[in-house]
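For the sake of transparency, this paper describes our internal protein records without simplification. The tokens are whole numbers drawn from a learned vocabulary of local backbone shapes. One such record is reproduced below, unchanged from the form in which we store it.

. . .
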Amino acid sequence: MADAGEPGTPGRAAPSDWYASLAGVVVAAAAVITDLGGRVLLVKPNYRDRWSLPGGVCEFGEPPHLGCAREVHEELGLEIGVGRLLVVDWAQPFGVQVRPIVSFVFDGGELVDGAGIVLQEAELDDFTFSEPAQFADYLPPFLIARVTAALRGRQRGGAIYLPGQVS
């Protein structure tokens, strides 16, 4: 006999309806890739004013590490080994009425001076390697915090959680 509190029993929603009613988040994934001197690879999306890390929004049901590898391949033509998780960043940048974004930043390893990069021209205008001291010239403040935390996590050997602000 079914438990009265079980989804799908009389007076309770079916499991698929119950799951559909839960709050959702957007899942994004990116990679911190550095050159041999420790400068961070940044990309310039043609649909934004500021630069970003290579990466993007995960597809429905796609695990973040696989989304990261797919996005890096699509944007830069690179097959990278997605390394350790460096940062989890929760943000709700568009206010409480819009789904929050949970961003996962992974270690994308090192690259010699952009070797092998083929930009996806439909989305990207350029790439560069930046010293942390120049991040403010390229990145919005929330992304400076995320990339700086990723570098700190890489150095310390652990992941960092950034509980973002609600706008």
Q: What stands out?
A: Residues 66 and 82 are 8 Å apart (CA to CA). The beta strands are 26-34, 40-45, 55-57, 85-92, 101-110, 124-130, 160-166.
